[in-house]
Design goal:
The structure is a homodimer of 223-residue chains.
Chain A: E1 2-13, E2 16-28, E3 33-37, H1 44-51, E4 59-64, E5 67-68, H2 74-84, E6 85-88, H3 100-110, H4 115-128, H5 144-156, E7 162-166, H6 174-189, E8 193-197, H7 201-204, E9 209-214, E10 217-221
Parallel strand pairs in A: 3-8, 3-9, 6-7, 7-8
Antiparallel strand pairs in A: 1-2, 1-4, 4-5, 9-10
Helix pairs in contact in A: 3-4, 3-5, 4-5
The complex binds adenosine-5'-triphosphate (2 copies) and magnesium ion (2 copies).
One adenosine-5'-triphosphate sits between chains B (11, 13, 18, 20, 38, 40-46, 90) and A (134, 137, 141-146, 171).
Chain lengths: 223, 223
């Protein structure tokens, strides 16, 4: 479903160029459960943003569901993103002035679902991540790990075929983090593709494929 | 240096009251190295904010360095905070429009240090957390774990006698996280008091005292 060929990514700061991803080659098949491990600053979020079509590579070919993303304009890219991909951001990116429930409902508004159904689906997924009694809280009325779980619920509410999770358990204790991974395992059994960045080798081990990244170079490790 | 007696803390949302800390009793001595473990939503950050005088308890007595914080007004509280306490926030709280170096220099500006010395001290601590080549980057030009390390550097640059760190390794890989804890261990050998919230039992074990928190109740565990 996803085929990256010699992907490079550079950031530019003033006159300086910093190449962060060097000729990354990665094939992911529908239904894969993949984890990406690597030190801080090694290029994981950069890679994830390109996989999720939130950023474009500086060079190389990226085919998503058979579409070459170079051929897609902004509108088509947004359509692919909203329809197929659920993204859990490393920094959560919740809207600060609306409740947990409204944050999770947001992606369903874009897909045109009427309000009673939206509230029902959003409430159910918030319950599944253990936040049934926090749905009316604003983000600043939630703990760090509760905010992270709202971000996870928001990514899952549209039932995406591909879930991209950037350090989804970073703010969670062992038990709560394990419950989140159980949720991902269940989604994967339903046939969804899961790509998870993590620093926790216990969490990484629960995937079926493990990719290591070091200074923007990938190596696959036998699981 | 720190004595909490029957501390309670409630949050109010509209007409609802949620008591998060229930009769917390905690004594911390100068030079202690303490870690606080507990599930997401159990009250760790709430407790840390009261310890760091960023929030006031709803009931109970809190003596910091012999001062009853009830007797201190806003200005005196801020003075104690800036002089004695370094705080690493769970959400980093970096200023987005200034560089890593300027973010770390900020606390030194309040203490009236001239610019060349400030830049030197800020540059040194950023080097110690592994960010020598990132000092001019803005926060959104840094990875999650790099932002966290800037927040750690900012808390340490004033050489506080008490360091409060709320999940200081949450965004860091094993090796980088361990280097940060080594830095804390060194500061503790110099006599500084370290209080660290963490979800990682490997990290917690490196402290000399371990406190568990569950639903706002504390228990101390033998290390
Ligand atoms: N907008 C940017 N401008 C310049 N450099 C950037 C930018 N964004 C990221 N970088 C740099 O690119 C490198 C890779 O960043 P990235 O966020 O992908 O790392 P990461 O593997 O996700 O790290 P972490 O585990 O700390 O989140 C880092 O050294 C970072 O400083
Ligand atoms: N401003 C607020 N208003 C209402 N409730 C709040 C507020 N801040 C925190 N809470 C609630 O208080 C409880 C404790 O929050 P706290 O941030 O102390 O937890 P925590 O132990 O730090 O969790 P985490 O490990 O997820 O960071 C949570 O259930 C949270 O929803
Ligand atoms: Mg990252
Ligand atoms: Mg917290």
């Amino acid at each position: 479903v996803l085929n990256m060929n010699n992907i490079c990514k550079s950031y530019y700061m003033g006159a300086e160029e910093l190449e962060v991803l060097h000729n990354v080659n990665l094939k992911i098949h529908t239904g894969d459960f993949l984890s990406i491990l690597g030190p801080s600053g090694s290029g994981k979020s950069t890679l994830m943003n390109i996989i999720g079509c939130l950023d474009v590579p500086t060079a190389g070919k990226y085919l998503l569901s058979g579409n070459d993303i170079d051929d897609l304009d902004e509108i088509e890219l947004a359509k692919v993103r909203n329809k197929e991909i659920g993204f859990v951001f490393q920094s959560f990116q919740l809207l600060p002035r609306i409740s947990a429930l409204h944050n999770v409902e947001l992606p369903l508004i874009y897909s045109g679902l009427p309000s009673p159904e939206r509230k029902k689906l959003a409430g159910e997924i918030l319950k599944r991540v253990g936040l049934a009694d926090k749905i009316q809280n604003l983000p600043n009325q939630l703990s760090g790990g509760q905010q992270q779980r709202v971000a996870i619920a928001r990514a899952l509410v549209t039932e995406p075929s591909i879930l991209l999770a950037d350090e989804p358990t970073g703010a969670l204790d062992q038990k709560t983090g394990s419950q989140v991974v159980e949720l991902f395992e269940q989604l994967n059994r339903e046939g969804r593709t899961i790509i998870m960045i993590t620093h926790d080798s216990n969490i990484a081990r629960r995937a079926r494929r493990v990719i290591h990244i070091l200074d923007g170079h990938l190596t696959e490790v036998e699981v």
